[in-house]
Amino acid sequence: MVIQERALRTRRAILEAASIVFEKRGFVAAPLSEIIAASGVTKGALYFHFASKEELARGVIEAQFSAMGQLRLQGSPLQQAIDSTHAVAHALQHVPLVRAGVRLVIEQGSFTEPDPEPYLRWVEPAQAFLEQARTEGELCPEVDVLAVAQLIVALFTGTQLMAQVLTQWEDLDERITAFWRVVLPGLAMPEALRRLKPEGAVKFPDGPEVPGSAG
Amino acid sequence: MVIQERALRTRRAILEAASIVFEKRGFVAAPLSEIIAASGVTKGALYFHFASKEELARGVIEAQFSAMGQLRLQGSPLQQAIDSTHAVAHALQHVPLVRAGVRLVIEQGSFTEPDPEPYLRWVEPAQAFLEQARTEGELCPEVDVLAVAQLIVALFTGTQLMAQVLTQWEDLDERITAFWRVVLPGLAMPEALRRLKPEGAVKFPDGPEVPGSAG
CB-based contacts of B66: which residues, under 8 Å, 6+ apart? Predict the structure, then answer.
């Protein structure tokens, strides 16, 4: 049990060091030696946990999803969809692991070895929120749930990419608010539209913690 | 004059070869030797036109913009904004230079050396369409023209990125249509909304030519 805990801690240290190096240099240019030095583990320990740089990158992407999977939101389904995008925006601003994961998905997973999986895993929760919104009568009848779920992921991806380039994510939150402000009239029934908050219903404190996350 | 024409043709051949190699391998992994071999020019000729790989990448990005700058569209300003996104979608499917330009902007210009300029140059025409739409009464009064112009570029970027990963751009056009279908109710006045075509008002033939482009 103690050994397992230590192994988990080592794995975590490697992932955190890797996320900093991947975020700074990108997948192709990131040297494993720099990740080893930054994590303070031996080369052997790194290879025990991750057989290759590719596997390490997958580990960073995976860790990003498990961090976000712990989010607990409240409110109507559409409000939860809105709040989850603000939560990811907050994580992008404060958590290197999330930033590195997103960079890897966009660079490696979109160009070098196109991999739909990370995108589809973002689509899943969006689709679940929208289906729930349909059940609860929040959604306009003409909305195609799967198409719009994919669209929301695409819109978030583009918005965060542009916020990164233009302002180093500083105004990402306002951009996400602007995106919901434009998109909601085409999604939500008038009654829902009146009470939905495009700016999010949850206030995130400065710092890496995401409120409602279990760990 | 003949010499200048030949120089332009050499420059064009280098850019086309570079776009194929950049598109396949990305900026970091693209070897200049492969670009030289593919373009059929000497190393000296390449360096005469482009002093470095960075400069070559800027040339590819630039060529992409000049191709799109030749677009001539008709119809109401909002319809032209819609049609221009379908034109870029069409170019992405058929013109390697445009695909390479977009990959370079996203990889190199967003991560390796963040450069807002290419994004801002896409924002300009979107802003011009929206301002014209405001003058002609197509736009809802609460729309913030600059914020929405940036949003449209972000949305297009994310949509094309996801279409590339999921379907190699095959369904990009339907995704662009879905994006306008969701976004237009938040942008256009009811009268304009009734006549606007989210699927675009121009039919693009299969192949690299963009109708209305002057060259």
Answer: none
What are the chain A neighbours of B26 within 8 Å (beta carbons)? 28, 107, 111-112
Q: Judge whether B32 is closer than 8 Å to chain A, CB to CB.
A: no
Residue with tokens 């070559």: B56
Which residues lie below 8 Å from residue B70, measured CB to CB, with a gap of 6+?
B210, B213, B214, B215
Interval B30-89: pLDDT, tens: 899 999 999 999 999 999 999 999 899 989 988 877 766 667 788 999 999 999 999 999
pLDDT digits (tens, 9 = 90+) for B187-196: 999 999 999 9
Query: Rounded to whole angstroms, how far apart are CA atoms A145 and A131?
Result: 7
To the nearest whole angstrom, how far is the Cα of A157 from the nearest Cα of chain B? 5
Q: Please judge whether B165 and A115 are an interchain contact, meaning their C-beta atoms are less than 8 angstroms apart.
A: yes
Q: Which domains does chain A have, with CATH numbers?
A: 54-195 (1.10.357.10)
Look at the alpha carbons of B176, B181, B182, B188 in this order and tell me if their dihedral is positive or negative.
positive
Assess B128–A contact: CB distance below 8 Å, yes or no: no
Cβ contact A176:A159 at 8 Å: yes
- Token pair, residue A117, equals 């999986």
Spatial CA neighbour of A54 closest among A109, A136, A96: A109
Tell me the C-alpha distance between B192 and B76, whole Å: 9
Give which of A39, A92, A37 is closest to A68, Cα–Cα: A92
